[in-house]
Amino acid sequence: HIGMLLRPDARNVLVIGLASGVTVGSVEQWPSVRHLVVAEISPAVVRAERWFDPFNHDALHDPRLHLVVDD
User: Fold this and answer.
1) Which of 7, 28, 44, 60 is the most buried (most CB within 10 A)?
2) pTM of the model
3) What is the DSSP letter of 36?
4) Which of the 8 DSSP states describes residue 50?
């Protein structure tokens, strides 16, 4: 939430690194966010993220999210 506290009116957000998805899920709670890009280097991290869905608000299923998995 720190980035969003500094810019609570942000409409377009970039998160670098998915990890557990908790940061992404937190950003998605802000109503100002219209478009969210998540950049992740590891497909294994994306596969493992589903185990954290109860803690990250099911982050990868938000329609505003665009996930980029690439190196």
Assistant:
1) 28
2) 0.91
3) E
4) G
